[in-house]
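Input/output pair, single chain:
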Amino acid sequence: MKIQCGDYCLIVDEKNKKQLVLVDSVASGTYNGVVDNADKDNEGTRTTISLDLADVMVNFGTDPQRGTCYGLSVEPFKFTKKINPWGQVQFYRDVSDAEKEVIVTSLRKVGGIIKQRGWMPVKPIDVQVRYAKSKTIAGYYKHASKDDVNDVLTLCPLEFDGETDYYVAHEASHGIWYNMMDKILRGKWIELFAKSTVLSEVTKTDLLSCMDDLKSSGSCKDYMADIKEDETKVLIAKEIFRLILNKHKLTKKDIDVLLENEDTDLKGIWPKRAMELGSKTLLVSDYARKSAIELHAVATAYFILDRELPKDVKALVSETLANI
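Output:
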């Protein structure tokens, strides 16, 4: 296999782990390069490594296509750009001049605000710009067991637009949660999140009504589409399907098969007891209902960008930022 300087190679290292390596020097049969992984546990690292030809599985050449090979994400490093106060921002994605301007402006703006006010997370953060993956717009990654590994703030929306300021502020807020808040402050956010739960009673009549509506829809997928605008019905349906799966080991596909037979009676598998379900009130945004951590991140991002917040949420953000 011929390997030249500038080639990207997939290798298996001494720990039998696949690595993407950019070859940066070739001399007298000796090959050296830098590890260029898109693996979450190693994001941000560019470690120098010596290559043994026997360990090279694939040579992608100098311009590999983004994708997956042998289970390894191939997303080659493109370039870095110094953007204060974040330092060298790592680009793993081709961006236009207009997109670059949006990224630079947002990072400088949000970074400037949180640094000036003393809210910049104390742990170093590697900022990375990557291609969009599924529905993920941005992310914050903290190594669970290695304190000497930098945290990683990733920006990966489909396009960089007017909400880029928010993406940066939101993810930077996760850095505040993980690295600057004590248990007392976290506990207050958990308490606020818990108080936003509204309990609703689901009666036997409600359960039978859901069963009749499901039969009318003809399939689980169509039923969920029919009720998607009714948050309470969606919550009840998800709980019913969960109970059927746990108790009878029947999936939605199994239920669809039963629905194809008009003579099938679903009462045998349908929950019979009334139940109590909890749903989250809308404190800030729909995404803030996901968890206490996300409620904190959304609220803090709104605060940083001077967006409107409910009085009690704004008060807790102020208290948090005053005590980190």
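The radius of gyration is 25 Å. The chain has three domains: 8-74, 79-194+285-322, 197-280.
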